[in-house]
Amino acid sequence: xxxxxxxxxxxxxxxxVTSAAFARPGTAGEVTEARLLSELRACDAxxxxxxLVAEGRGGEVLGHVVCTRGRVVAVPVLALGPLSxxxxxxxxxVGTALVHAVLGAADALGEPLVALLGSPAYYARFGFRPSAExxxxxxxxxxxxxxxxxxxxxxxxxxHGTFAYPEPFDRV
Length: 172
Hints:
Layout: E1 2-5, H1 11-22, H2 32-41, E2 51-55, E3 61-72, E4 75-85, H3 94-108, E5 113-117, H4 120-123, E6 129-130, E7 136-137, E8 147-151, E9 161-164
Parallel strand pairs: 4-5, 7-9
Antiparallel strand pairs: 1-2, 2-3, 3-4, 3-9, 5-8, 6-8
């Protein structure tokens, strides 16, 4: 498996992976996370350097992760997600490799922190902590139990306040 930046040629495969990863039985229509990804690509918060794919031996896209530009008050930070892995490749280390790679890339770019809404049991292994530990609040108070932050090397302890996702997240 190779972790690399997404290219324009990957967009359709990434859409298919995201749709399959988040498909819910008994529902029809476009998967919310796949639509979100399309909308994020079209907004100013899109960061190509932090949009990665896991490529299999045959060149197929196994998984995808993206960080987009979020904010804590006026401070630019990152929002991680969606993270998608083909169902047949889940629980094989693809998601873990993608998260490690995107966190390393974000740190190398001098980003201060990454925030996400997700499973604390899954994301704790990457150093994510409850956002309250950093005095950062989620945009929706009910998200508190699942809203997490990972400080990076450039983290400034003075960054605190309410996190804001890029605008396309408001429609999810």
